[in-house]
Amino acid sequence: MTEAGTGSLTEGGRRVARPGRVLATVCLCQLMVVLDISVVNVALPEIGQDLGFALSELSWVVNAYTLVFGGLLLLGGRIADLFGHRRAVIAGLLLFGVASLLGGFAQTPGQLVAARAGQGLAAAVLAPISLTVIMVTFEEGAPRRRALGSWSMVAISGGALGVLLGGVLTDLLDWRWVMFVNVPLVALALPLALASVRNGGGGSQRLDLGGALLGTAAMTVLVFGLLETEKHPWDSLRTLGTLGAASVLAVGFVLWERRSAAPLVRLSVFATRTVWLANLLALLVGAATVAGFYFASLFLQHVLDYGPLAAGVAFLPFCGGAVLGSFAASRLVGRVDGRLLIGGGLAMGGVGLLWFGSLSPESTFLSGFLGPSLVASVGIGLSLMANTAMGTSGVASGEAGLVSGLLNASRQCGGSIGLAALSTLAVTVTGNASTADPTAALAAGYARAFLVVGTCALAAALLAVCLVPRPGASETEKP
Q1: Residue 123's Cα: distance from chain center in Å?
Q2: For residues 359 and 368, is the Cβ–Cβ distance under 8 A?
Q3: Name one GO cellular component term (predicted).
Q4: Which of 4, 155, 371, 455 is the most buried (most CB within 10 A)?
Q5: Given this model, what pLDDT does residue 201 score?
Q6: Could you read off the pLDDT of 217-275 as tens digits, one per residue?
C-alpha cells in the first residue's frame, strides 16, 4: 500500500521502496533499451572494417537486436507477471551487462551478432518491466502521470541521444565503446533495483508454453520478414511467404489463447476500448517515430554531409522537444480532454514530419532542420505519454506486465513496418528521380518518406479525436 501523502510504498507497515529510486531504476532500464537501437548505427563502418563483415551482413549488427527484441516482447512482458518484478529486472540487467561485455570484446562477426541478440533478449524483458513497475508502484493520478512523463522523455529522446553518444564514442575512443557503455549503466541500475523494486507479480508460476511459442514465432517471423524487405521486394515470393507464415502463426496464437486455461495474452483485455485503442495508436506512433527519426538521420549525413558527431549534436533539439512535450503531457493528462491531448500531439507531430518533407540539398540546420525537429518532437512527446497513460489506466496489477508488453510490442512492430515500407518507397523514388544529381535524388526519396509518414500521423490524430473516450465515459463503452 502507499503511505498517505508521500507516495512511498509500504509492506506490513514497513517502508520498502522510495518512488524516486524506483523511477531512476526504470528510466535507466528504458535508456539502455532505446540507446542500443541507435548507438551502433554511426559505428557500423568501423565495425565492418575491424571485424571483417561482408557489406551484405553488416546490417545484422542492428537487425539481430531488433529481431530478438521485437520477437520476444510479448513473452518478456508476461515474465514479470509470472516470476516477479525484481527477478525480471535483475535478470534483464545482468544479461544486458554480460552481452554488452561480450560484444565489446568480440573478435568475429558471429560473436558480435550473437552479443547483439543477447542484448535484444535482455531488452525484451527490460522494456515492458520498466513500464510495469511504474504501473504497480505509482498510484493512478498525479504520481503516475509524473512517472510516465519521465519514462516517456527517456523513451523518445534516448534514440537521439544514442546517435550523439555513438558519434562521440566512435570519434574519440573506439567502436567497442558503443557496447561497453552499457556496463556502467548496468552497474548503476543494479543496486538501485535491489534497493527499490519490489518482487511483485509472481502470483502464478504457470506459463502458457504453447502460446509463448506461437506468439514468439509469429512476432519473430513478422519482424524478420519486414527486415528482409531491404534485400527482397515486397512482392517477392520470399517476402510474401514469410509474411504469410507470420499471419498463419498469429491466427494459431489467437486460437490457442482462446482455449488456454492460463493464456499468455488474455484476449478479453481488448474489450476495454482504451487498451485496444492505445495499442493501435502505439503502432502508428511507432511507425512515425522510428521512420521519421531514421530518415532525419540519413538526411543529415547523406544530404547535408554531416559527420557522425555533428549529426548527433543536430538531434539535441529533438531531445529537448521530446522532454518538453512529455513534461507538458504529465501536467495536462487528467486535466485536458484526452481526445485533444493525444489527437493534438499527433497532429503536431504530423505537421512537423510534413515540414521535414520540404527539406532539400540547399537546406541548412537553422533554415530547414531545426523548426520541424522541435515541432515533431514536442508533438510526439505529448502523444506518446498521454497514450501510454490512457492504455495503462485501470489495469489490474496482475496484468500490468501483459499490458506493458502489448504496448511495447505494438510500438516496436509499428516501427518495423513503417521503416520497412518507407525504406522501399524512398529507394524507389530515389531510383526514379529525374535529376542526375545523386544527392538531390536521395533528398527526393527522403522527402517522399517524410510526406507519407506525416500523413499517417495526421490520420492517427483524426482516429484519436474520433475514438478516444470522452471524459467520464466508461472504458468499455463503444464509440
Answers
A1: 10
A2: yes
A3: plasma membrane
A4: 155
A5: 54
A6: 887 787 777 767 767 777 788 888 888 998 898 888 888 878 877 676 777 667 777 77
Copy the grid coordinates of residue 296: 532525419
The domain 269-471 having CATH identifier 1.20.1250.20: the answer here is yes
What type of residue sits at position 160? A
- Alpha-carbon distance 97 to 48, whole Å? 23
Q: Measuring CA to CA, which residue among 469, 155, 453 is closest to residue 325?
A: 155
pLDDT value at residue 211: 75
Q: Compute CA 77 distance to the chain's CA centroid, rounded to the nearest angstrom.
A: 14
Our CA dihedral for 170, 171, 174, 178, rounded to 10 degrees, sits at -20
Distance of CA 91 to the CA centre of its chain: 20
What is the dihedral sign for C-alpha 161, 79, 404, 418? positive
What is the architecture, at CATH level 2, of domain 11-207?
Answer: Up-down Bundle (1.20)
Q: At what angle do helices 109-137 and 85-104 cross, to 10 degrees?
A: 160
The β-bridge partners of 10 are 15
First to last CA, the chain: 35
In angstroms, the CA 112 to CA 87 distance is: 27
Q: Identify residue 374 by its one-letter amino acid code.
A: L
- Quote the strand ranges of 40-103, DSSP E: none
Secondary structure (DSSP) of 101-154: HHHHT--SHHHHHHHHHHHHHHHHHHHHHHHHHHHHHS-TTHHHHHHHHHHHHH
Q: How far is CA 469 from the centre of its chain?
A: 25
Here the cell at position 276 is 485496444
Q: What is the pLDDT of residue 348?
A: 92
Angle at 59 between CA 68 and CA 39, to 5 degrees: 75
C-alpha cell at 353: 514530419
Task: Compute the CA torsion angle 140, 144, 149, 152 (nearest 10 deg).
Answer: -90
The per-residue b/e assignment along 160-185, b for 16 or more CB within 10 angstroms, e otherwise, is bbbbbbbbbbbbeeebbbbbbbbbeb
Note the pLDDT tens digit of each residue in 168-217: 887 778 888 989 989 999 999 898 888 877 766 555 556 667 777 887 78
User: Looking at residue 94, what is its pLDDT?
Assistant: 93
